[in-house]
Design goal:
The protein has about 200 residues and is α+β, with helices and mostly antiparallel strands. Helices cover about 40% and strands about 25% of the residues. The strands form two sheets. A five-stranded mixed β-sheet has the order 5-2-3-6-7, sandwiched between helices. Strands 1-4 form a two-stranded antiparallel sheet. Helix 1 packs across helix 2 and helix 3 runs antiparallel to helix 4. It is elongated, with a radius of gyration of 20 Å.
Length: about 200
């Protein structure tokens, strides 16, 4: 939050109590007494992406790749994020790939980058682009591809009420975007097992 002090734990809990009352319940009811503290703690965890720079996870790389120059793809990375329009979760999977130039990164770091960017308020399109741009900027690969497939609670629980619908977004950079064969290989590998 630029130029503004973050609200305290007590202020966050007070806001939750107001929402409970606004919804029509009594925040002093036995079952709800500890709810404001629980909600504030869970939001701190769910929005932990504001506490770190996910790009930092990509800083440690390995140059000893024995000439490996094919796509590296990590599939089925869990995504839990929140729609910035309704503050409701969207949950799904990310598929992250890159075409190394002369170095690779530990695969756990790719999952950490996804989680770091996901734990913020945003739209899925922005999340997909942020992950791809970070990998491209830090690793300087020949190309990057990111696909996210998720179900949005703001569509399935309210509004249009369409459970089971999924949004797919992709962001391609470098050769993964410009070389038709590499692009096709990326999407084929992402699709393999993704039914």
């Amino acid at each position: 939050m630029p130029n503004k002090t973050r609200p305290t734990q007590d202020e966050a809990e007070a806001a939750v109590r107001v929402l409970i009352e606004w919804a029509g319940d009594d925040p002093e009811r036995e079952g709800l007494l500890e709810t404001p503290a629980r909600v504030a703690r869970s939001y701190r965890e769910l929005f932990a992406g504001y506490e770190t720079d996910p790009r930092d996870y990509l800083e440690k790389t390995f140059k000893e790749v024995a000439g490996y120059d094919e796509l590296v793809i990590l599939k089925d990375i869990p995504v839990v994020s929140f729609c910035e329009h309704h503050m409701l979760p969207f949950i799904g999977r990310a598929y992250v790939g890159y075409l190394p130039s002369n170095r690779v990164v530990g695969i756990s770091k790719l999952a950490r980058v996804v989680r770091g960017f996901a734990r913020r308020l945003q739209i899925q399109e922005k999340l997909t682009a942020e992950i791809a741009e970070a990998i491209c900027d830090i690793l300087n690969p020949k190309g990057v591809g990111v696909v996210i497939v998720s179900e949005h609670s703001c569509m399935t629980m309210r509004g249009v009420n369409t459970p089971g619908t999924r949004l797919t977004t992709s962001h391609l950079l470098g050769e993964v975007r410009t070389d038709p064969r590499t692009r096709q290989e990326f999407f084929d590998l992402v699709r393999d097992g993704n039914h």
